């Protein structure tokens, strides 16, 4: 879309015809392989990994999409919500590193760490680890140094306070918690950097699959906190990386 | 109901006839004044204040109920959710102490403090004070020593930690908070006594009139925490008193 | 946290250096075994059981945590939400008593009963028994005498009234009920002690997995009632024990 | 609609033409006065009151509808949700009896009591009285003997038990309650007749304007209980009358 | 409970002692078999079937409860929500008639039809049949003549109108429908008898497991309609029988 | 946007420069008057009325927007959700026809009826009329012949059936209903044309401000029915016009 | 129902007796095969496919219904929500074309395309394809030309804009999307024809099984958009066909 | 809290006693003025404005808090949710700049713009302006350059695309929208910087006071988007400033 001007210039100079120009605007940025329209342009231009959302896709579809990306010069591909079974099939034909807890696969090389500062991923309890790891690995795959502070839920405040140094040295904090999601507010009150809160579906009864943590985080009385979808570790890691590359 | 045995005994000895006995079971414990069936028995027996829920009652109805109670020997009457206007009308004919922030009135003398320990009422923010005061005044009216810790929300953790001594010396803590309600969990993790959480309807947007704080408190990851209805300061104060009189 | 003063005193006297002190504050209260930060301090000090929340933990993780606790002198460990399969694995290496209906395991000896009075656990129907048993066993594990009144739902009021004596002699009552959760209100109106209401997810249709009972209990017209999360038998038993040890 | 056969017979005998018959089917049962299509047929045939739902109608519209009904021979008209102001305007031109608490008006004579048995209207608290009265007055207007048992909420069980005789002599019970709505279950367990539960919007916080009572009543563990809409006193009274006229 | 007077009389005459009387009040009406308190009294007295709610009970528990009932003279036992597997086990030792679609079992003889009139069970679609059958079989087991009108949903109005005669001859109608639940309103507008609406969990998407039909039925613009819980065919059949035996 | 090709052609021929072209794409279709970006292009091109959503706009803002539209050649302007007060202010300077029940104003001339067929607007009750009128007037303002069938709710089925001819002659039907919203399904089963369902916020209690009707309509068992937002009479009238101009 | 007049005429002429006429009105339009009342009339008259909703029906029931339809002259039968297993059983005895992704089967010949224009089915992502295909195949089965635009979600706007020509040439657009459902609004702002929005249950966390997309689509700020139930591809295809055959 | 080490050092050197140290930890960071505990420390240290949440505070309380801040050297104070009336009272004694649309007041001087880049605030419609302005003014008060793009809702995509240059030059984008909230996803797909989505309570019917927009934004299919509470313009502006000062 931001190429309209350059295409128009070529029309002016006669380099491309009007119809060709219109065609370029329409065809350029993606490749259509029937079950997906793959964005090629941006990924390679930015030198960052391209992402395949694995949920609801067969291993075959994932491979098909990855192949188009690789063919177009992509060197790192992140695959989220990748099941163990699909990972095995993908690994048969591609160099895949698979993280089973986070259900995340990476094809190719992980870029070097070039973010401004450190991203701290703090989580409330042991059961929040899959989501926390998805966030942490995503942030790493996008070139960030990540510090993990797990099992620092607010019911045992000293465990969190024991890591005040790490928390306060962060450039971005990702706070991952289920149940009452209070971690985001407490962390938000302790640090001066942006806090990305990730509610998890961990809990039972009136946690309503993460709704309780979600509402809690949205209502945080601490400033500087924003929220992503329940269990959306990838989204938090990705956004943290964007903030850390300002 | 616990008098069935004694009534039965009197039937045995002929002191009361069968029909009279049945009558006693039915008529004894309350007085019916058309718009209310007033429990007389328990109040006086226990030597504790009787309570009139002011919500949805006219000043006239409140006076009517109070008069029956006073006539039956009650010395302290607590009136909750009492509007400023009704308070004025009641005060015209009765010795009423009115607390406008908590919308609570007390007729008669406040009993002496005879609880086991202290009740700490902690609240998250300035706007939670009406509910916190309703809890604190109720607890006082039922004979408890109360310590108030207001505006100690978790986003400024140091304000709460500055009062660790008071918190830890409590026999019961009432944690009053709106928005994300995280105060209950943090307090629950710091103390060893029962914590009664009171969600408040303070907040906006996704706080949904206290639902967010309610869910958060129900899902507290700290043990020893239980919850009463949104804005139910009276209920928390009453329950705290019961625990403090074990 | 409550040790800050003693640590500060040692800094004063030179017993510990500043950095060592800071280290103590940070390191002391828990042991970090990668997937969990185990609180060692409080349990042993209080002479009460330590608790492992079994939900979302593998048998191996549970054993790892238990071993750290035992190594630190803990004599009783309660494991909640422990599946039959995990129980078998834990039992292979530890002296485990397993209660399958309540899905609760206890390693070590049960402390003697040293509570102030009796805890009555009342439940509405046969299907509420797993949650009721979790509450009852937890209370017993924490040193309380427990009386069980099961299947005393309000639709058959005489079954409840037949046990008025036990109810009225309680120091704390735990009322466990699904569906419409009316048991809490009725019990709350009969007794003078604190009532902890536990909504259960028993029911169908508009019970919405316990939401109906939860709302009903929160809105109880009886004073002295508070509520824990849906199916949270452990939380109720733990809190009842705290109240019973005031 | 049940007149199709008689109309068809008249077509056969030539009493009415085909087109006239079709016209009769279409036009007969109501009169169209622009803002309402008034059902005339059934009311007069059954000898029972006709009902005007006052909500959202101006006093002028109500008078207009009433006039059509009266013109067609109706002798009793019930007007629900009639505001005090509208009542005054209607009373200027019609013989109106107005019950302000129930916001219900009756034009004309109340039919004699011809139901099978008695209808008991039980309510939980003083604030539920408007809805209870709407139910009771409706039942009376439809020719039933009504017994009122107000302020018999389950938190004071003895107040309800004191009226066991009346309850057990009922042919239908209407149980009106807000907050946790437990009255329906307790009553349902005590009587052998149909129980119509009416949740009220009385309460605050997690009562969510009657949702709590509604869910509670729908999940009643007592058999023989059914539920009408929140605050629908009229609906309960009308249905009770139908059952009492079987 | 309704025996208090007779017990009191016996105390008077010396037939029973005071303690014995108290004992009788407490012990009489049920038998306690550990996992259930079985109500014996009422069933046999009324000459109607006793009901066992099969949900959440093992075949062994069901057999145990049934045996106590049979031992006490019960001749017909209805078992609801009885799985195919449990039915086989029960059938091995008892004369059980099992209706698999309605998941309902009956031990013993079905009482003769002694209701006032006919009960019509109308349902919206083929998928609502299990709930409709549970209602119909329950009504039959309690001594009622039942007429089934299935697949008469409002989208094909002529299918319903074709059965106007049956509908209008009913003494009670049970309207069973999922999705938008409009059947209850349409039927309610056509008949003069009580209509019991049963929302079903049939549907998908925004039917939210029966919530849509439930709300729709509660808001019925037709008078004389009340509602039971989602999928509660038994409750509807039981209540219809009560109304049909007025 | 659909002008890109024509603009590109002009770039080719040199009629416009590259920068000018880019400017045209950006500036052309609307006029920015600080508080609004007014779409000028489409309205005039299509020869149909332009719409101003009055909600949340002051009379002054509405006049400002209308003036820009009129200046650009627009001849008919529809203003929705226009309060009585704002209407008076607008009418002072513009030729405004105001419909108070529908809270809708029209500046200018109403276009002639040029739709394919007739649009029938059917509504359930008297209280639904404001929304029904908003739909009907909108459809008329967009050049359609409209037939109004009001107060034909499903509880009085004969009132609807009496108008079968009109219903069946419709090209599009708009079904407006609150409470249980069953009208949409019944109408959907009677006609062969598209049905647009408009839930209204009419009702009380469990109607939850239109949620009940909304869910009911979304779950309609009749095919050919789609739904717009609660109370969105304008949206239904606009869409019906689009369908009627295919 | 629309045959009442013709039947009445025959009564007039003596062709049919009154009772026979009544019988015809009742019996004519469907065949009752115990588990279903099959509508025969309309389908054949209109020359369009008849539909069997496969959900909750056994393969045997589906075959039974199809046989009645075929016997009555139906040439095309659409079976929705048909499982792979049921499809195999149906295919054994009937000429069935099965589309596994859309879980849709067609018996007989597909009618020729006779709609006014083209129907465009646009979908947000790969996971929305099953619902999109159900819509597209339904539209084709009802005689429409369909253009598929899949994976054109709003996060990659250029993919949608690249297909502006197809979008703008549509007579009806079906917009299928899960997650935030923004596709409907964006498409609604680009085209001048009716847009039918289909929310899908694709997503996780706060998508609440399609609720998020549903609400989003109902609140679309674009005019001309209406919504069908979550995942209701059939409904959208059917309605689009109706609009395309005006 | 981050001063513990420095305080400990002073204990070591004897500069402060143990008790004094403990006192410092507790007393330092805030001043307690009965109805509020005002944080003094951080504000002045960081050289950024201090914030007073005006909601639920009287003008007198606001002045009291402001005075403490000013006394402690604060030069800029932001007051959110400040009513027109309160603003007048505050302005009587302080140099207040009041923005009525955003209900925001600023005491003192606005700091110079020292952020990394520009913050773009985009909003969907005219009615979203109050929230958008709250965000924009907050960002400006915290030292950021702000670009406003208002009324660029997705239903008129060209209005948004016309500002692609501004959007793409942003360092952070705040997307403010009610109704379906699609703006966040579309913007998120166009830019490479962090997007903070602010749902507004603008809308009606199924927008449920902002719930629709909130869910939509949480489910955004675009990466790099996070969400703050409904109508929380301040929160978005504050967070954007933090990101823009990395």
Give a short summary of the structure.
Chain A contains eleven helices and eleven strands. Chain A has helices at residues 4-12, 18-27, 41-46, 59-71, 84-93, 129-141, 157-161, 164-168, 183-190, 211-218, 233-244, and strands spanning 30-32, 37-39, 50-53, 76-80, 96-99, 104-108, 118-123, 145-149, 172-177, 195-199, 225-227. In chain A, the strands form three sheets. A five-stranded parallel β-sheet of chain A has the order 8-7-9-10-11, sandwiched between helices.
How would you sum up this structure, described in words?
8 copies of one chain form a homooctamer. A 5-stranded parallel beta sheet of chain A has the order 8-7-9-10-11, with helices on both faces. In chain A, 40% of the residues lie in helices and 20% in strands. Chain A is globular and about 65 Å long. Chain A starts with a helix and ends with a helix. The first copy, chain A, is of the alpha/beta class and 246 residues long. Chain A is built from 11 helices and 11 strands.
Beta-strand percent range of chain A: 15-25%
The quaternary organization reads as homooctamer
Distance between the termini of chain A: 22 Å
Structural class of chain A: alpha/beta
How would you state the average pLDDT of chain A, rounded? 87
Largest sheet of chain A: 5 strands, parallel
Number of helices of chain A: 11
Q: What is the approximate shape of chain A? A: globular
Fraction of residues in helix of chain A: 40-55%
Strand order of the largest sheet of chain A: 8-7-9-10-11
Biggest interface pair, residues each? B-C, 36 and 36 residues
Indicate the low-confidence ranges of chain A by residue numbers. 42-46
Radius of gyration of chain A: 21 Å
By DSSP, the count of extended strands of chain A is: 11
């Amino acid at each position: 879309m931001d190429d309209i001007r350059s295409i128009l210039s070529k029309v002016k100079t006669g380099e491309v015809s009007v119809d060709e120009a219109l065609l370029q605007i329409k065809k350029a940025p993606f490749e259509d392989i029937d079950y997906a329209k793959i964005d090629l342009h941006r990924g390679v231009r930015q030198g960052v990994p391209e992402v395949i959302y694995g949920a609801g896709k067969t291993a075959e579809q994932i491979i098909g999409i990855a192949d188009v990306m690789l063919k177009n010069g992509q060197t790192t591909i992140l695959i989220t919500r990748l099941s163990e079974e699909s990972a095995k099939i993908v690994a048969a034909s591609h160099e895949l590193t698979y993280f089973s807890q986070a259900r995340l696969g990476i094809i190719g090389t992980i870029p070097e760490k070039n973010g401004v500062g450190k991203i701290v991923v703090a989580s409330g309890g042991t059961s929040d680890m899959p989501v926390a790891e998805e966030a942490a690995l995503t942030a790493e795959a996008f070139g960030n140094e990540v510090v993990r502070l797990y099992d620092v839920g607010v019911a045992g405040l000293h465990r969190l306070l024991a890591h005040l140094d790490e928390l306060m040295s962060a450039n971005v904090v990702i706070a991952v918690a289920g149940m009452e999601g209070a971690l985001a507010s407490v962390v938000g009150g302790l640090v001066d950097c942006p806090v990305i809160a990730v509610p998890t579906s961990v809990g039972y009864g009136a946690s309503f699959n993460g709704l309780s943590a979600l509402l809690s985080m949205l209502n945080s009385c601490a400033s500087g906190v924003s929220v992503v979808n329940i269990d959306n570790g990838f989204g938090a890691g990705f956004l943290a990386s964007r903030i850390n590359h300002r």
